[in-house]
Amino acid sequence: MREIEHTEITLPDGTRLAARIWMPEGAEAAPVPAILEYLPYRKNDGTLARDKGRAPYIAGHGYAYVRVDIRGTGESEGVMEDEYTASELQDGCDIIAWLSNQDWCDGNVGMVGISWGGFNGLQIAALQPPALKAIVTLCSTDDRYADDIHYLGGTMLCEQISWAATMFCYNSVAPDPRHVGERWRDMWRDRLKGSGLWLKNWMEHQTRDAFWKHGSICEDYSTVQVPVYAVSGWADGYPRTVFRLMENLSGPKKGLVGPWSHRYPHIGAPGPAIDWLGEELRWWDQWLKGCETGIMDEPQLRLFMQDHAKPQGSYEMREGRWVSEPSWPSPNIARVAWSLDEAGTLARNGVGQGRAHVSTPATVGLQAGKWCSYGKHGDQPVDQGPDDEASVTFETPPLEADFEIAGDPTLDISFTCDKPVALIAVRLMDVVPDGSATRFSYGVLNLTHRDSHEHPEMLVPGQTYRARVPLKHVAQTLRKGHKLRLALSNTYFPMVWPSPEAAVLTLDLANCTLTLPERNGSDGELRDLGTPVEAPPTETETLDKSGFDWKVEHLDKGGARVTITDDAGTIRIVASDLTVSMKCVETYELASPDDFTPTAHITWERGARRGSWATRSETETLVTATRTHWRIRAKLRAWEGETLYHEEEWDKLIARDHV
């Protein structure tokens, strides 16, 4: 295997994109298939540690692994103005055509990626470039509006602010002159001046309009005709995608959902991690080399059936076992109705009765963790007791026998509301005899979106409505002697930005039904997914240690502050003598339990240096709100050495649209 640290792909418009390539020795004489991973996260430092584990291993098994920086990122020319733009996707098609014409490529190309690379893999597959023969998409979505980091159930996720702040800083990082020479400063200037404020773009599109339909392959699944392997984890933000793809794609397809957070499965956390690179190679051998590996003879969908876990915010390992389903929807799943009554009882096949009034303080949600876990301490849910005590709850007696669910629970409600805008948060808990409660599924819905994400309608106070709240897919065993708890609130901060004002939801429990996807399938004989194997890591020197901290503070007047500090430390990449550093601090604050206009404040710092060359950047994002508007104040500063090279500020007011 040989590695080309840096080469450039010239696009039809003359723009040069940076690529790093690993391939077998002698590939020019004996061409091999190419596998493309296409990301904005900087091939020479940002994803290098991860790439070094994956790419040489796959290349060593007879493939050219090609890692390309998106236009305007890393060492690629141009400016990136948003995620998944039409130009990004067309560039991807042009890259695939270029790869297929290289003398070391046999003309067959696959595409792989996690998160951004999983997204654009699906989207580029929908454009049907001729040389693309198969994809692997991990932790991705087919629906950019309803199931992404932006708007969940029509509510605005605070993760949207976090993610915008992340890319705000990424877009401010300079190219490396080691690879682009004296062009670096002009390329950097273009990025600093041209990338813009993405959060403004996203917050100006609060409904499912054409902005979000672009790149959402759920608009027409038939456009994806190549074989698709879809992967996610229960702690990830995107497991629902795997199920929808299995249900709606017409071509060859496989699905896998483990206990993992937002990570590749061979480095999956919580564990157990698996020999994902071996599994991935079976897929590529099947579809890029035409070898019969048996992978398509195995069940279409494999799921990790989680057992009970103590609520603790993070896990090294989850107890459970692997199960399989022949297809999705599965014949092994029966959807069973559970009733709610005003005594707080949750009953299987029961009859609901009475009413419930849901009006919760703005501080409900402090125990929720992140919408998408990255496998870091504290970013998964902790004990739900404090949130549940402030919510309306329904609970079973101790269960008389174990049972399993696999799929998406739903809650159908009949309700009135005293305000024109309100949301509902629905959570399912596994409650053990000592009273501790572990959340295993949840969902949120902006009730103005009860009938449509594209055309929301204000609520008329006192009028009766019906709505269905979809909950996150999960596979979970509920043990004999434990209780199942359903908790309802109309706040869930800081995961979800609150409605403009306090509201009271009145539920007619006779017409409210929780539906659980109960599983009664046999496990059968399943192939062992193995233990992780990867290539040796890149050599680095740690100059300043990394750290992660999740802190919840209770303030005077009953308010709360959540502070998340993610410090990647300072490391030197030995081979390139490049020293990089990165730190982010997120703060979400409520002045009191009656504060429905919280603040979100996020700062980022990034630096890079080698010898006398040094650059660094700092970004700041502050979001505040009134009942009618959001206000974004943002600042960008960048230094070359100790000289301030660029400074820019934004102050934008955005009207709230049914949110």
Through-space gap between termini: 53 Å
Unreliable runs, pLDDT <50, ≥5 residues? none
CATH top-level class of the largest domain: Alpha Beta
Total individual domains:
3
Approximate helicity band = 10-25%
Query: What would the average pLDDT be, to the nearest integer?
Result: 97
Q: Report the total helices.
A: 11
CATH topology (fold) name of the largest domain: Rossmann fold
Give the strand content. Answer: 35-45%
Radius of gyration, taken over Cα atoms and rounded to an integer in Å: 25 Å
Q: Do you know the CATH architecture of the largest domain? A: 3-Layer(aba) Sandwich
Strand order in the largest sheet: 1-2-4-3-5-6-9-10-11-12
Question: Can you walk me through this structure?
Answer:
The chain is globular and about 75 Å long. The longest helix is centred in the first third of the chain and has 15 residues, at 86-100. It starts with a strand and ends with a strand. It contains eleven helices and 33 strands. The mean pLDDT is 97. Helix 3 (116-127) links the parallel strand 5 and strand 6 (132-138). The protein folds into three domains: 2-148 and 209-325, 3-Layer(aba) Sandwich (Rossmann fold); 155-205 and 539-574 and 577-659, no CATH class; 333-519, Jelly Rolls, CATH 2.60.120.260. The relative contact order is 0.12. A ten-stranded mixed beta sheet has the order 1-2-4-3-5-6-9-10-11-12, sandwiched between helices. Strands 13, 14, 15, 17, 18, 21, 22, 24 and 25 form a nine-stranded antiparallel beta sheet that branches. Strands 26, 27, 28, 29, 30, 31, 32 and 33 form an eight-stranded antiparallel beta sheet that branches. The chain is α+β, with helices and mostly antiparallel strands and 659 residues long.
